[in-house]
Amino acid sequence: MQFEYDNPTRVIFGAGTLARLGELTRPHGQRALVVTGGGSVKRSGLFERATKSLGDAGITVFECAGIEPNPRLSSVKRGAAIARDNGCDVIVALGGGSTMDASKAIAAAVFHDGDPWDMIYHGQPHPHVPTRALPLIAVPTLAATGSEMNSGAVISNEETTEKSFMRADCLYPRVALLDPELTLGVPRDQTAYGVCDLITHVTESYFNGVDDTPLQDRFAEGVILTALEYGPRAIANGADLEARAQIQWAATLALNGWVNVGTNGGYPVHMIEHTVSAYHDITHAAGLAIINPAWMRFAARHRPARFVQFAQRVFGLPAQGPDDLAAALAGIDRFEAFLKSIGCPTRFSELGIGDALIETYARDTVRIINDGKGNLPGRPPMSEADIVAVLTAAL
Ligand SMILES: NC(=O)c1ccc[n+]([C@@H]2O[C@H](COP(=O)([O-])OP(=O)(O)OC[C@H]3O[C@@H](n4cnc5c(N)ncnc54)[C@H](O)[C@@H]3O)[C@@H](O)[C@H]2O)c1
Ligand SMILES: CCCCCCO
């Protein structure tokens, strides 16, 4: 195992910490672009509280509102123009993963002369990896993506019907202000999707990573077990602040590098889901809930021991040995049943999606991200035919 790890994001965690937003932002800038999503932050009064804290710290506030779920390239361009026109020197992302991701792309687009889409991996040989971005203060209002403490962002290009990621060290937020009180208003369905997203981040590295990662395995299992315990509590009672806090920290850990460091695995389920979301604009984690179990059943046949370990350690199921495929599949069934129990779809038919574009999803996914041999990176690497088979099993 070899790796280099450096996550510069300063984390402030706790109920009521929003009051420190101005204090935490001031060292990074005086003219803040506050980026928000669909309006929940306005309806809840959070926007007013945030902008008051910023104003009290002597920070002038500008706004980029209306970031949509599956954030679009056009919104990134709009936000970058507002930031440039007003000489903004810091960005405050106040919302879910879509808002935080759009904010990261805006922060970098301000310094990019070309099309911001250059920065997104979409099959071009040399993506423009930004080296400069405005400082970003991430204030998540939804426990899901972990974008508040990582260097990635996922953007949709509505003109080319593509959705893909960018990643650069300059995209790490300077500060992640994690106040679980801000997540109390998240509806049941989005709470469930957030639980699914954070678990899927962990299963990607757990099942696609290199061998011999015992500590990362147990870290991953701990995140999953925390989500299995506190996720249903937060879904059943949105006012359960303790449950909200536990799944928020689990979501942050799931993709801040601590769990997956040194595993060097692909993210096949995410890559396939991005393509489906590009065509259907579905909620990202709804797509994950549908694709992940089907992908697991495909991958278990190639690497049963990992799935046996998952069945044993996460669900306490018995197994005849590391190659006990029946036990591996039983663990996957239990995971799928959990997703159903919290209200996630597990088949495309539940979203009205049929097989008409399955070959297109497979072709686009492998075009956007591949291993140079025409396969989607993962364990095992997936051909277009493999992707078609997995998606067909999830119809
Ligand atoms: N950068 C990353 O590491 C990463 C990881 C996973 C997913 N993603 C991307 O993140 C996006 C999904 O982000 P998300 O799952 O956080 O959802 P989201 O940001 O798209 O928000 C989902 C919905 O919940 C609403 N919402 C947010 N906070 C709320 C609150 N406190 N109360 C009520 N409603 C609230 C939003 O307005 C929106 O309508 C996708 O584009 C996905 O591809 C990024
Ligand atoms: C390569 C990592 C991509 C992670 C995307 C999260 O939605």
Keywords:
single chain, 395 residues, alpha/beta, Rossmann fold, Dehydroquinate synthase-like, alpha domain, 6-stranded parallel beta sheet, 8 strands, 11% strand, globular, binds nicotinamide-adenine-dinucleotide, binds hexan-1-ol
Biggest sheet character = 6 strands, parallel
- CATH architecture level-2 label of the largest domain: Up-down Bundle
Span between termini:
38 Å
Strand percentage lies at 5-15%
Number of strands: 8
Reported by name, the CATH topology of the largest domain is Dehydroquinate synthase-like, alpha domain
What Rg, in angstroms, do the CA atoms define? Answer: 20 Å
Structure class: alpha/beta
What's the oligomerization state?
Answer: single chain
Provide the spatial order of strands within the biggest beta sheet. Answer: 1-8-5-4-2-3
Structure in words:
This protein has helices at 21-25, 40-43, 46-56, 73-85, 97-109, 188-208, 214-236, 241-254, 268-280, 284-300, 304-315, 325-341, 358-368, 384-393, and strands spanning 10-13, 31-36, 60-64, 90-95, 136-140, 152-157, 162-167, 175-178. The protein is built from 14 helices and eight strands. By secondary structure, it is of the alpha/beta class. Strands 1-8-5-4-2-3 form a six-stranded parallel sheet, with helices on both faces. Strands 6-7 form a two-stranded antiparallel ribbon. α6 (188-208) runs parallel beside α8 (241-254) and α7 packs antiparallel against α8. α5 (97-109) links the parallel β4 (90-95) and β5. The chain folds into two domains: 10-183, Rossmann fold (3-Layer(aba) Sandwich), CATH 3.40.50.1970; 188-393, Dehydroquinate synthase-like, alpha domain (Up-down Bundle), CATH 1.20.1090.10. The site of hexan-1-ol has 5 residues, from β6.
